[in-house]
């Protein structure tokens, strides 16, 4: 009887996995709209709660969109650029770094993630091959990324990205800067990242950032991330999101 | 027996009970902010200092520009000590005496000063602090900083000044109660300021261009 119940629970979880909306390329320009979440607000539990998503998406992410639009209203030369392009242009523009960065980074974040019930344990295919080539194993890669996430001081993001030589690098960036912006660094095309701002985890994990990071690795949508690597990052392209 | 002297920093007791700032600043936030975040800065500061005999003021003013761990964790310890000293129940909502007179002289009235300070706090992007300090010319200056940087830090802060009033705008300072509503937290903060303590630090230290020895005051 217990076996049957467990089977039924597994089946319903798998059905839910289909509920994440697939990524489609976006070439929107000003005026930007807040993206619709690709899944329900409880989909990422127990990694991230619906209360966190409500604050993070409906408020923080919304505010980046609003402030970006307000800025672009007075910058006609930037109004025909996509969000990815605005990020590529942000090297010397601190307002774009904040708000185009915030908008873009969070667009990516929601797609990097999936339900822990649906997530694969790790990457496969060409991404795994490249990780093994550089780190010998996914575990080594994961450990190094974990350390960078733990060590980031203040607010920021940690990224896995492809540099100009075609190698995977891990980059920590402050605030809403990302490696497309080339602020004090060469370009690196992100395909995976984690939000280390306290707002991303405080309501559930509070000071225990390490627990948030450990849980993050159970909620990565590796199919999506492999796609981002194969189609964009490894081709030296920014993700059109 | 070899006697080793080394600086050992400890988490000071709060100068108020952890529930006395409710409902503006609740017990849960205060106890985690102090017992977890501030404690971690103290622990990591001790690790970074090792057996060196630095004082906290030396770390903040001089060592911070040479060492990122001392800058981050020394700053974290100092800044949180100053923050606790600025807080208390029974707030009079604005200072009196010399400090009020000085604010009015420079800003015309207290509310203009308050607005400017609030803007500094609200507009600090990411993690940081807003400060009120006295500069070497004897003027009051409002400033803000990123992460755990502090106006005393030579080589880091362009124009050094002696801070005596501050608000923590790292998200951990307000997120449990206010979430993204930082402006609301900043607005309500004025109701829980211990002006007597702030005026004391202004008169005894900042006006004399002496850094406030926050860890010694908290004991």
From TrEMBL, chain A:
Organism annotation: Stentor coeruleus
Family that this chain belongs to: Belongs to the iron/manganese superoxide dismutase family.
Domain Manganese/iron superoxide dismutase C-terminal: from-to ranges: 123-226
Residues binding Mn(2+): 56, 106, 195, 199
Signal peptide: 1-19
Cofactor entry: Fe cation
Pfam families membership: Sod_Fe_C, Sod_Fe_N
UniProt name for this protein: Superoxide dismutase
EC number: 1.15.1.1
Keywords: Iron, Metal-binding, Oxidoreductase, Signal
Keyword field contains Oxidoreductase: yes
GO terms assigned for molecular function: metal ion binding; superoxide dismutase activity
Function: Destroys radicals which are normally produced within the cells and which are toxic to biological systems.
Catalytic activity: 2 superoxide + 2 H(+) = H2O2 + O2
GO cellular component: cytoplasm
EC top class, as a word: oxidoreductase
InterPro entries referenced in this protein's UniProt entry, alphabetically: Mn/Fe_SOD, Mn/Fe_SOD_BS, Mn/Fe_SOD_C, Mn/Fe_SOD_N, Mn/Fe_SOD_N_sf, SOD_C_sf
Domain Manganese/iron superoxide dismutase N-terminal: 31-113
Automatic annotation (TrEMBL), chain B:
EC number: 1.15.1.1
InterPro entries on file: Mn/Fe_SOD (IPR001189), Mn/Fe_SOD_BS (IPR019833), Mn/Fe_SOD_C (IPR019832), Mn/Fe_SOD_N (IPR019831), Mn/Fe_SOD_N_sf (IPR036324), SOD_C_sf (IPR036314)
Cellular component per GO, a single term: cytoplasm
Cofactor(s), by name: Fe cation
Domain Manganese/iron superoxide dismutase N-terminal residue range list: 8-87
Reaction(s) the record says it catalyses: 2 superoxide + 2 H(+) = H2O2 + O2
PROSITE patterns: SOD_MN
Residue sites binding Mn(2+) per the record: 33, 80, 168, 172
Coiled coil regions, renumbered to chain: none
Record's keyword terms, sorted: Iron, Metal-binding, Oxidoreductase
Gene Ontology molecular function, alphabetical: metal ion binding; superoxide dismutase activity
Residue ranges of every copy of the Manganese/iron superoxide dismutase C-terminal domain listed in the record: 95-200
Protein purpose: Destroys radicals which are normally produced within the cells and which are toxic to biological systems.
Sequence similarity: Belongs to the iron/manganese superoxide dismutase family.
PANTHER family attached to this UniProt entry: 37S RIBOSOMAL PROTEIN S26, MITOCHONDRIAL, SMALL RIBOSOMAL SUBUNIT PROTEIN MS42
Name of the protein in its database record: Superoxide dismutase
Taxon lineage: Eukaryota, Sar, Alveolata, Ciliophora, Postciliodesmatophora
């Amino acid at each position: 009887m217990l076996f049957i119940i467990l089977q039924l629970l597994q089946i319903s979880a798998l059905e839910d996995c289909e509920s994440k909306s697939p990524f489609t390329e976006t070439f929107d320009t000003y005026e930007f709209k807040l993206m619709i979440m690709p899944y329900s607000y409880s989909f990422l539990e127990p990694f991230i709660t619906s209360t966190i998503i409500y604050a993070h998406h409906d408020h923080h992410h919304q505010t980046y969109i609003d402030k970006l639009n307000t800025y672009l209203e007075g910058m006609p030369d930037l109004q025909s650029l996509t969000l990815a392009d605005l990020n590529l242009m942000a090297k010397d523009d601190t307002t774009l770094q904040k708000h185009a960065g915030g908008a873009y980074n969070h667009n990516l974040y929601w797609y990097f993630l999936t339900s822990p019930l649906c997530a694969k344990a790790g990457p496969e295919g060409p991404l795994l091959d490249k990780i093994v080539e550089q780190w010998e194993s996914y575990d080594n890669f994961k450990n190094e990324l974990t350390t960078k996430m733990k060590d980031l001081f203040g607010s920021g993001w940690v990224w896995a990205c492809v540099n100009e030589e075609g190698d995977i690098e891990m980059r920590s960036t402050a605030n809403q800067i990302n490696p497309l912006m080339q602020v004090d660094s060469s370009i690196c095309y992100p395909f995976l990242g984690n939000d280390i701002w306290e707002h991303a985890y405080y309501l559930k994990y509070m000071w225990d950032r390490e627990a948030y990071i450990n849980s993050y690795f159970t909620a990565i949508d590796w199919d999506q991330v492999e796609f981002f690597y194969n189609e964009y990052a490894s081709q030296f392209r920014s993700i059109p999101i | 027996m070899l006697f080793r002297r080394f600086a050992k920093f400890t988490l000071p007791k709060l100068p108020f009970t952890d529930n006395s700032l409710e409902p503006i600043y609740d017990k849960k936030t205060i106890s985690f902010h102090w017992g977890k975040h501030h404690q971690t800065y103290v622990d990591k500061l001790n690790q970074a200092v090792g057996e060196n005999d630095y004082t906290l003021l030396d770390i903040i003013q001089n060592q911070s520009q040479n060492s990122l761990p001392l800058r981050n964790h020394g700053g974290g310890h100092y800044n949180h000590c100053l923050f606790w000293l600025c807080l208390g129940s029974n707030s009079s909502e604005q200072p009196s005496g010399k400090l009020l007179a000085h604010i009015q002289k420079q800003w015309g009235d207290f509310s203009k000063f308050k607005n400017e300070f609030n803007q500094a706090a609200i507009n600090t992007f990411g993690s940081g602090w807003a400060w009120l300090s006295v500069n070497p010319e004897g003027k009051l200056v409002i400033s803000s900083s990123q992460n755990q940087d502090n106006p005393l830090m030579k080589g880091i802060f362009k124009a050094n000044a002696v801070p005596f009033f501050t608000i923590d705008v790292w998200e951990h300072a307000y997120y449990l109660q206010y979430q993204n509503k930082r402006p609301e937290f900043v607005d309500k903060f004025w109701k829980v300021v211990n002006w007597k303590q702030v005026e004391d630090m202004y008169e005894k230290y900042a006006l004399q261009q002496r850094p406030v020895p926050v860890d010694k005051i908290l004991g």
